[in-house]
Input
Amino acid sequence: MTSIVTALQYLSSGLAAIFITTSPAITVLLAHFFLPDEALNRRKAFGVALALGGTIVLASSGESGLADVGKANPLGYVLMLVAMTAGGAAAVYIRKYLNDYNSFDVASVRMFVAAVVVMPLSALTIGFDLHAVTPGGYVALLYAALVGTFAGLLLAVYNVKRFGATAAAMTGYVVPIFAGLGGVFLLDEKITAVMLVGVVLIVGGIMIINRSKN
Output
């Protein structure tokens, strides 16, 4: 989550959401090596290659999705790749080792450990100053913490335990739709032809993965 938020300094929310859509492909790839019951077949492998090809198209084009930025800082792409890989690894780990644990307990421990690690690092590297935070900022922070992060994480853990890492990752379908449209209408971001090509490749790859039969 820290990587995603930091990446939004260099990429639009719509473009970041497109990268989030690659999460199922990365999860499927990791599951192949670490989960015996979720191995790749030919169709899944082709879907993974197609989806990751879409991210290569976006990265090689240098798209930022921001109206006032021509070329994106490559750091934004790197941060999104780190975030998606970390998320996929977490899903695989939960499925492999934490399947018998309560979903609320798993989500709570993850959030607590993340806070213990990230808060001191944030204070050391950025500082701690609440004077510039507006009332709207506090509302946004509260919503992001309770709904966007904890509630979302709780549902994600439950999905992994109930349906498997690969199936749970398919929720990435809806992210670019809401984030892309929200970015255009609320943040004056743009959707370019290259971004649409990337979406088609990534979503096409994920659809192939989703239709695969073991």
